[in-house]
Design a protein that fits this description.
The structure holds two protein chains of two kinds. By secondary structure, chain A is of the alpha+beta class. Chain A contains twelve helices and twelve strands. Chain B folds into three domains: about 160 residues, Aldehyde Oxidoreductase, domain 4 (2-Layer Sandwich), CATH 3.30.365; about 160 residues, Alpha-Beta Complex (Aldehyde Oxidoreductase, domain 3); about 325 residues, 2-Layer Sandwich (Aldehyde Oxidoreductase, domain 4). Chain B starts with about 35 loop residues before the first helix and ends in a 10-residue tail after the last strand. Classes of the chains: A alpha+beta, B alpha+beta. The complex binds flavin-adenine dinucleotide (FAD).
């Protein structure tokens, strides 16, 4: 085994003053690889480090990144650790009823009662995003940047119509999360996801996730749903069934018309006919898993799609039921 | 070159499994003595094979076949040899040829030698080892292995076991591992009620927490020393030596800490390849498989297809059972014929039926090879016959427990193999114990109990859609080798000063043998400090840690050796007291005469002495099953009954096992706490098979070789396990009257969970694992 020739040490203070840096050289099958790990202590430093270091990749909790490294899919030349940027690990309010969430918020932090009171659906999503060890370090920013189909926060952010602040050396820009995820307006090289702006709704919001076991597992399907009584609207997003969360807009509009917004049931809830709630489930499921997906043999892709459609239908109906409770 | 003494683990503990000789509070047989390895494992200082290190070691890596079935046209190893840091590349050509000039070089296998160590000419399953590399860095070794160029000519993969009969042989030994017809009674017999069913069992993987790892060190005499978490040190030594063309005494096997084994561990290919690389390079070689490789390297449980027809009279008494059982053995024979014997012999379960007609086959396919795994063969049939009994109960409109009681086997009853069950068969008593056991409460309207709903925390569970189901199952499995296998174990006990040492090559793979051996010596000799020597192949043969045999054979050998030492110890004292040895007893560290008048502390009697004895234990012989499946093939049988309670979200098909209550026939509870541990572990594994675990393949290719893809039960998936009864009806011929406890609960648990899901949903539930779509109503 060849020992790293340049062991851990401090970066030359002349070049990049405040950024703590480790350089090491490792050999992989006769190929020399230089690896740099930088630990900026502020956003500005991080953005600058990203701008000046070719091939640098930001890393937060590393729960997705290291999986890719270990599997050999990724060999980053340099890593920029975001863990020391304390400002990104919290959140604040902004005028006009918006919560500004740091990209470094961990799933475990979002699951705590104070946060859950603020954005309950996001807290629910964070609670189910993997086992405790992973949620203790995995972050909101990492979940968005990875943009996995089963990313649990994604349907919630889509349904809340959240936006992301992307920072690069010399400026920032604001992008709707859905544009980021669909690739309409993706994260560009050298950009850091810093903040997520979530409009606060003082109305019911729900996140439901179907998995294949009781223990921690990725979603087979998930549904996020919010009510907007002021505008008499329902918003719904379905996760894990497609590369990005899907918004069944027609079903949303239709079901909003089925709700008796003025009626007050038990504990002051708005009302809906159970048959309409069930039809909403079918509507959502049909919109997200189109008929074309149902082709195929009895055990082929068609059968899988049919089962998924059922699951989404049940989730959407239950989510609406809970929101209206 | 390193000598074996240079080997160390980073913790500075001896290179083998540690056995501290602590003064345990609970003492002797029947006590709840703490496991000897519990503390080191909890503290993380228990040395496993992956922790081993030797000066100047090289790293091994294996190239595996990406195809389930292909002819190897050419192998070009030059790109690997060209990489700096690579010391050796080996293929089948580097192994001595097989004994009778077999087409595949150096074939091996526990029962039938049909498996090449490195593929020779043909690959027969996805992940089959083709070549191996030793290099100075693990990454280099892997890169080099990946750079080897293998030209394959793809062949059609036979993955449907039913097709195996109709296709040209996939191997010179043919496609049929074994056909076992079992016929007894009147084929014309008919019952008033007939139920039929088709049952399927998936591929469960042992998924040991520690992946395969080992270290091979070349010896100056041209031999090799292997440090492995072997479960059968002598068998592994002999097979490794044979494959390398060495005399057995040129191979020494040192057993390191075993990181989980419910079956065999390191397959032979791994060991032989490791040894070959060490011999080739003259340097120690270490190899640790990645998780993905591990799934490809070890054998899994036999997938099964079972067709059953039960005839019963109007009272529900079994009249006739007909069955066809097909086990998919995968690419190589391994222990398929043994698994098949259990499947056929226990095809009716712990019930009496005069007319039984079974055909059982184990066949070769291009699927991953199947092997030994807790209750192999018996588990698959238990799911089928218990499902059939549930169907009969429904047809008759009687309680599932009642149908079982009406047919329950008792001591002395014949099995379909003609063998009378001479050991205790307390099936009715086990069922009674379950009946009397209280049921768990429903998690009603408790907001805090949200996470108790099927689907788990934050799941989509809706109490309105949850149905509770209660299911029962009873099962049986033999212990010890069957069909004429020579079962024997040897142990040595040494006492010096006030502590004792046990030397026995029975590997504690987690089943707790070391703890038991200590308890035995404590009971017989009254010394509290008992050291269990690390295992290596220089010791006498004890046989594999499988089939629930060590309590009986090795426990028996330890007991006999200890009794011989006891005799040596007491004889002079008895002579001194003027009485015979039989009139002295040892208890609480004291030797006392029958009348309590004369006495002496054990420590004092032992002072300055060193006493040794070696003894063997060999249970009564068995015989192979004949051409109609008849014969006294088993030494003894253990029984278990379970009640499973499940909650099912019938819209999403999510299942949560709430509670499993167990009544088990243990003969004698030698360590109640260990028994409970074993039962809990077996239930967890059984629940995994019932609901989650399935190594999926597509055209022979493994799809989910990772712990993300292969779903093991987590704490949230595992139910509360309650012991309703550990029935202690002693088996007079067994050591201490005790029965093996680990396998039988694993056999029964999947059937019990399936019965409960059936009760909750009203659906037939014909396959394991039960997927969400199998539990959706409507
Ligand atoms: C066992 C296990 C179970 C899991 N289960 C779930 C689950 O149930 N649900 C779920 O949603 N996820 C799950 N995950 C995935 C993962 O934990 C989450 O996606 C997590 O949110 C990722 O965050 P991270 O901070 O670890 O990201 P990292 O791994 O640090 O980064 C991931 C990617 O995002 C980039 N990145 C990180 N932060 C930023 C930023 N501020 N700006 C720009 N790019 C950035 C990185 O460069 C990298 O490409 C699981 C992971 C594991 C290992």
């Amino acid at each position: 085994m060849v020992p790293p020739s340049g062991g851990p040490g401090w970066g030359s203070p002349g070049r990049r003053p405040r950024v703590r840096q480790f350089d090491e050289q490792v050999e992989h099958g006769g190929i020399q690889v230089n690896r740099t790990i930088m630990l900026p202590a502020s956003l500005d430093e991080a953005v600058e480090a990203l701008a000046v270091t070719p091939g640098a990749v930001p890393v937060a909790g590393a729960t997705d990144l290291m999986e890719a490294v270990n599997a050999g899919r990724l060999r980053p030349a340099a890593l920029i650790g975001l863990g020391r940027i304390t400002e990104l690990r919290g959140w604040r309010y902004e005028d006009g009823g918006t919560a500004v969430l740091g990209a470094g918020l961990t799933h475990a932090r979002m699951d705590r009662p104070d946060f859950a009171a603020l954005i309950p659906a996001l807290a629910d999503a964070a609670r189910t995003a993997g086992p405790p060890q992973v949620r203790n370090v995995g972050t909101l920013g990492g979940n968005i940047a990875t943009a996995a189909p089963a990313g649990d926060t994604l349907p919630v952010l889509a349904v809340l119509e959240a936006t992301a602040t992307l920072a690069r050396a010399g400026g920032t820009r604001e992008v709707p999360i859905s544009h980021l995820l669909t690739g309409l307006d993706p994260l560009r090289p050298g950009e850091l996801l810093t903040w997520v702006r979530v409009p606060l709704l003082h109305a019911p919001q729900v996140f439901l996730k179907a998995t294949s076991r009781s223990g921690p597992a990725r979603a087979t399907a998930s549904v996020a749903l919010v009510l907007d009584p002021a505008r008499r609207a329902v918003r719904c997003a379905v996760g894990a069934v497609a590369p990005v969360p899907l918004r069944p807009l027609e079903a949303e509009t239709w079901v909003a018309g089925c709700i008796d917004w003025d009626a007050r049931g038990e504990e002051g809830a708005a009302l809906i006919d159970p048959a309409a709630a069930a039809a909403f489930g079918e509507y959502v499921a049909g919109a997200c898993i189109p008929d074309g997906a149902l082709d195929g043999g009895p055990e082929g892709p068609g059968a899988v799609a049919l089962r998924l459609r059922r699951t989404v239908s049940v989730l959407a109906r239950r989510a609406l039921g809970r929101a209206l409770k | 070159m390193s000598s074996p003494t240079d080997i160390s683990s980073p913790t500075d503990l001896p290179s083998a499994a540690p056995e501290e000789s602590q003064d345990a509070e609970p003492f002797g047989l029947g006590s709840t003595a703490l496991r000897t390895d519990a503390l080191p494992k909890a503290l993380g200082i228990y040395p496993y094979a992956a922790d081993l290190w030797a000066e100047g070691l090289l790293w091994g890596a294996v190239l595996r076949s990406p195809h389930p079935h292909a002819r190897i046209v050419a192998i070009d190893t030059t790109p690997a040899l060209a990489l700096p840091g690579v010391h050796a590349v080996v293929t089948a050509a580097d192994l001595p040829p097989g004994p009778e000039g077999t087409p595949d070089g150096a074939p091996s296998g526990p029962i039938v030698a049909d498996r090449p160590i490195l593929a020779c000419g043909v690959v027969r399953h996805h992940g089959e080892p083709v070549a191996a590399v030793a290099a100075d860095h693990p990454d280099t070794a892997r890169l080099a292995a990946a750079s080897i160029l293998v030209e394959y000519e793809l062949l059609e993969a036979v993955t449907d076991p039913e097709q195996s009969f109709n296709v040209p042989p996939l191997h010179p030994e043919g496609n049929l591992f074994r056909h076992l017809p079992l016929r007894t009674g009147d084929p014309e017999a008919v019952g008033e009620i007939v139920v039929e069913g088709l049952y399927q069992v998936g591929r469960q993987d042992p998924a040991p927490l520690g992946s395969e790892a080992g270290l091979a060190v070349p010896r100056p005499d041209g031999g090799v020393e292997l440090h492995l978490s072997s479960t059968d040190p002598h068998g592994d030594r002999d097979r490794t030596a044979a494959c390398l063309g060495l005399e057995p005494d040129r191979v020494r096997l040192v057993v390191t800490g075993v990181p989980g084994a419910t079956s065999d561990r390191e397959d032979l290919s791994f060991q032989v390849t490791l040894a070959l690389l060490a011999l080739r390079t003259g340097r120690p070689v270490k190899m640790t498989l990645t998780r993905e490789e591990s799934f490809h390297a070890h054998t899994s449980r036999h997938p099964a297809l079972l067709r059953y027809r039960h005839h019963a009279d109007a009272e529900g008494k079994l009249v006739k059972v007909e069955a066809q059982i097909l086990l998919d053995g995968g690419a190589y024979a391994d222990v398929s014929s043994e698994a098949l014997a259990a499947a056929a012999a226990f095809s009716v379960g712990p019930y009496v039926c005069a007319n039984v007609f079974v055909d059982a086959w184990a066949v070769r396919t291009n699927n991953p090879p199947a092997g030994r795994m807790r209750g192999e063969g018996a588990l698959q049939t238990c799911f089928a016959y218990e499902s059939q009994l549930d169907q009969l109960a429904v047809q008759l409109g009687i309680d599932p427990l009642e149908i079982r009681r009406r047919n329950a086997m008792a001591t002395g009853d014949p099995m379909p193999t003609g063998q009378a069950v001479t050991c205790p068969a307390p099936v009715a008593a086990l069922l009674d114990a379950l009946t009397d056991s209280p049921l768990p409460a429903l998690p009603l309207d408790d907001p805090e109990a949200d996470w108790l709903l099927p689907g788990g925390p934050g799941g989509a569970g809706d109490p309105a859609a949850v149905r509770r189901g209660i299911g029962y199952a009873v099962g049986m499995v033999h212990m010890l080798g069957a069909e004429g296998e020579d079962e024997v174990s040897t142990a040595t006990v040494r006492v010096s000063g006030n502590h004792a040492t046990v030397i026995c090559a029975a590997v504690d793979v987690g089943q707790g043998f070391a703890t038991l051996a200590r308890q035995i010596v404590q009971s017989v000799l009254g010394v509290s400090e008992v050291y269990i020597a690390p295992v290596d192949s220089d010791q006498s043969v004890a046989g594999p840690s499988a089939r629930g045999r060590h309590t009986w054979v090795s426990g028996g050998a330890v007991e006999r050796a200890a009794l011989m030492v006891r005799h040596q110890l007491l004889q002079p004292i008895a002579a001194n007291f003027g009485m015979s040895v039989e009139l002295l007893s040892i208890a609480d560290g004291k030797i006392t005469s029958y009348d309590g008048v004369l006495g002496m502390p054990v420590a004092e009697a032992l002072e300055g002495k060193e006493l040794w004895a070696t003894a063997q234990c060999r249970p009564h012989p068995t015989e192979p099953l004949d051409e109609s499946g008849q014969g006294d093939a088993f030494v003894s049988i253990a029984f278990c009954a379970m009640r499973a309670v499940v909650d099912v979200d019938i819209e999403l098909g999510a299942v949560r096992v709430v509670d499993v209550t167990v009544a088990q026939d243990v003969g004698r509870a030698l360590n109640p706490r260990q028994i409970e541990d074993r039962i809990e572990a077996a239930v967890a594994q059984g629940v995994g098979l019932a609901l989650l675990e399935d190594l999926r393949t597509d055209g022979g290719r493994i799809l989910n070789a990772s712990l993300t893809g292969y779903r093991l039960p987590t704490a949230l998936d595992t139910p509360d396990v309650r012991i309703a009864a550990l029935l202690e009806e002693r088996d007079v011929v067994a050591t201490f009257g005790a029965k093996a406890v680990s396998a039988v609960p694993a056999v029964v648990a999947p059937a019990a969970v399936a019965a409960a899901v059936r009760a909750a949903t009203g659906l037939p539930v014909g396959r394991l694992p039960i997927l969400p779509e199998d539990a959706i109503v409507g």
